Amino acid sequence: MTMSPSKTFAAMRSARPGLAVSLSLLALTVVILMAIFGPLVLGSGNGLNPLMRLKPPSALAWFGTDNLGRDVFVRTISGARNSVMVGLSTAVVVLLIGGTLGVLAGYFKWVDRIVMRFADGLMAIPGILLAIALVSVLGGGLITIIIAISVPEIPRTARLMRSVVLSIRELPFITAAVSVGSSTPKILLRHVVPNAIGMLSVQATYVCAAAILSEAALSFLGVGTPPDVPSWGNVIASGKEYFRLAPWIIAFPGVILSIMVLSINIIGDRLRDRFDPRLAARKAS
Amino acid sequence: MSNFVVRRLLSVIPIALIVLVTVFLLLHIGPGDPAALIAGENATPAQIDQIRERLFLDRPLLEQLFLYLSHVVQLDLGQSVYSGLPVLSLIAQRIEPTAVLAVSTLILSVLIAVPMGVWAAWRAGSTIDTALIVASVLGFSVPVFVIGYVLVDIFALRAGWLPVQGYKPLSSGLWNCLRSIILPSVTLSFLFSALVARITRATMIEVLAEDYIRTARAKGAGNRRILVVHALKNIGVPVVTVVGTSFAALLGGVVITESVFNIPGMGRLTVDAILTRDYPVVQGVLIVFSFVLITVNLLVDLSYALFDPRVRQ
Question: Running DSSP on this structure, what letter comes out for residue A71?
């Protein structure tokens, strides 16, 4: 997304340099460690315990229990694994496909015409609705969710990469490479792509954050990951009917999900300040 | 000017066509027979055949596409497999809550976000500015449903000021309707005003650094005059643009918000249709939402001519 403004968090950083970013990195590390080792230590949290239904947080169950007596803390920890996996996989899929299409569209005019037309069309369908429809047609499961969330994100990334490449191809070193007779694939791989990597990494963070939110939204609506595969979205969804009686089922995973997305966005903004060519130009002038 | 308008109007055609083809193909990209997919797991072969015939699924793919497009052009979005009612009338029954929610969110967000963005830019680097930046990053990091439940807990369950869930139609009186829509639209405004405020602030900072602002100051214009006469005029285009580009996020948010607040709108219709595998309804809703989005973006582009005299030439 290109709508992030210049100098986001600049004010905050000038007050306390790097604090927001350091805290975000710390939060991300904790969540990723949780995602890797949590389920090994605590299990999946799918064990039912009818005697422990809808119990508030206590020393036995830190985040309370849900309507089936499952421990919300354990489910939140094991949900981290699926949510993080969906976020990272979507970022990889979107960057590979969207990034490639964007680079080609930015460099070859005829590709541009075709790709951007399709991008316009796909972007005219609200992303979350397209994802819902795709899940319903392709069937549940993690892979399907990743595909369904990726499809609406691909045109956005392609569009961004196209604009980055359009500005790179006008630079003198590309003209120089062309004039010494470098082949087009070589120019693309050696000169264009490396210079676009910065913005691509910024986009990766935003796609990852958006994917984690989309997965949660899909699961919340009941069309996401299957109920026996805990993710933050479906742990929250399981508390939907009981939120007057047991608000903790929604509150704890909701807070952790928000902190995770917030951290990724803050890191993305920081990367953006570093890599956005428009910002660099403004600083130089 | 008329040239610009005509060109922009014509550009809608290929986009609409791609949307329709994508929505049509949705049914065919899944594994297996689309008729069996719609009929569900417990259907008999006869029922599957019946659906195949009714939805023209026994014809060649291109013919199906042509039939589908010609029906859509005549405003026939097919019939619900589940209830047998025309999809368009199902959508018409559900459109009011969705439209009320979307419009009230839009108004609320612009009323909050534009002044906040301008204020933050005017006082760039101050505590107000920092607070706005933090609030806006929070606004699009916290999921809509989490914000929704927090607000319900505070204002409906604890304070008892507003209804917990549900929707009162406009026909039950404007006040009743507004009361039922306050919490949902405030919830959704968090996301939307975060986007609008960020862009307003960034644009305003750029505008305030322009030469003509310095000239105005040099002429001795007061702060108010600089803001209202010179600066605000020039943030129209970017602000309207961000309203347009983030309208898709707004529509997505509407679907989720309706689920949180149990509002019987188009979002609920979509989710219910998916759970009952009522694909003609799913396709119909996708088409209607997409056409709303295309129209909004068309209006946004046409409004440039209003804000920016250079476009008119």
Answer: B
